[in-house]
Write a structure and sequence with these properties.
By secondary structure, the protein is mainly alpha-helical. The chain has 14 helices and ten strands. Strands 1-3 form a two-stranded antiparallel ribbon. It has a two-stranded antiparallel sheet with strand order 2-10. The chain has a two-stranded antiparallel sheet with strand order 4-9.
């Protein structure tokens, strides 16, 4: 009822297209938003549970062969919240960024780099989609939640991803994960491309791309295998990682990995197949070396076994790890329930814990972790080259 526009204000707790996408700072803020949950710690850790090396109790249907596209329930496709659209939100977010940044007045070289980072995140997401589900809609423009679109053949989606990665590799900087402060780099694009090519059986190109990453000269093998995945590692081996920062952008993944005695859930158990794969100290398979004693299976083994697996009787965090006894004595000599017991809800069902990312810490820290999680690292490029 009055002409004074003092009630017409821009909300300070939200953004809109009408007021956003104006400056270089807006583009940078939008790019930061793309990195939120571009990859989740649960995918990185729990995917090991779909291999012969690890067991995750929540994925029994993936282990016993009853998994189907409709019950896989991975975040690369959808979940109970809203089905396929829940996951295509990410694709829509990447597409929307690529569309809206075109009109932002900013340094053109920086704009191309930002776009290349968004294109990588979109390609990375599509890679996991087509590896798990095959044919699917390939969407490269912004669509609304009620979209209906025919499936695109898997080979076409894969080729789109490979073409994107090849193009953006020439735009992105040649830096390691520390130098880039967590941003996508040229090495990440070519490393991902090499992974997909190996998966697809394109061995010659996989070798070429893996060698290109190795020869960039910005990555270096971490000198301490034991500390490789721990929080203090200043890691120039990382080509691509999910970056976490305490108090600002933390993760709680250590809680799901640590033993029950330390307040963890011991969710990722190593398998006996993995333990048996380690050679003896003589470099021989356990089936070929008489030094191997099945009654003392952890003695005289490749030292990487102890660095990689927490097994019964191993000294760790000032105690001996014991997942075999339901009760253990406390400091007063009284018998109490053992959180590490393999049948307990927070005990490893195999009595073996994968020590990747596992280090002693307080409960406050395990719920506010700054540990980065590696997605691609330099040894994968050596192994890709060797296998190809």
């Amino acid at each position: 009822s009055c002409a004074d526009p003092f009630l017409t204000v821009t909300p300070k707790n939200s953004l809109s297209d009408a007021t956003f996408w104006q400056t270089e700072e807006d583009a940078e803020l939008a790019l930061a938003g793309l990195y939120e949950n571009w990859e989740t710690w649960s995918n990185i850790l729990y995917f090991d549970g779909m291999s012969d090396n690890a067991y995750y109790p929540g994925w029994s249907h993936k282990i016993d062969g009853t998994a189907t596209p409709s019950n896989l329930s991975e975040s690369y496709w959808g979940d109970s919240y809203s089905g396929a659209w829940f996951e295509y939100r990410r694709i829509r977010k990447y597409n929307n960024f690529l569309q809206k940044i075109e009109d932002v007045e900013m340094d053109e070289a920086l704009k191309e780099r930002y776009k290349a980072e968004a294109r990588f995140l979109r390609a990375y997401n599509y890679f996991f989609k087509f590896t798990m589900f095959g044919d699917m809609p390939l969407i490269t423009e912004t669509v609304e939640p009620d979209f209906v679109m025919a499936r695109t053949p898997e080979a076409e989606v894969r080729q789109f991803v490979l073409d994107e990665l090849e193009e953006i590799a020439d735009i992105l900087p040649v830096q390691n994960h520390i130098q880039s402060d967590g941003h996508i780099t040229s090495g990440a694009a070519l490393g991902m491309k090499a992974r997909i090519e190996l998966f697809a059986g394109n061995y010659e190109q996989a070798m070429e791309d893996a060698a290109a990453v190795i020869n960039m000269g910005v990555y270096e093998l971490y000198p301490n295998y034991h500390d490789l995945f721990l929080s203090e590692a200043d890691n120039e081996e990382a080509i691509l990682a999910v970056k976490f920062t305490q108090d600002i952008y933390p993760s709680r993944h250590p809680q799901f990995m640590l033993p029950g005695m330390e307040g963890g859930y011991a969710n990722i158990a190593a398998t006996w197949d993995m333990v048996e794969a380690y050679e003896t100290v003589n470099g021989l398979p356990i089936s070929e070396d008489p030094i191997y004693d099945p009654d003392r299976p952890f003695d005289n083994r490749d030292p990487r076994l102890e660095m990689s697996v927490l097994y019964p009787g191993q000294e760790w965090n000032g105690r001996y790890y014991n997942p075999l006894d339901p009760q253990i004595p406390n400091e007063a000599g009284e018998m109490v329930n053992n959180p590490d017991y393999f049948e307990n809800s927070v005990g490893s069902p195999a009595g073996l814990i994968i020590k990747k990312y596992v280090e002693p810490m307080t409960e406050a820290v395990m719920l506010n972790s700054g540990q980065d999680l590696m997605v691609i690292r330099l040894p994968e490029m050596y192994l890709t080259y060797a296998e190809a």
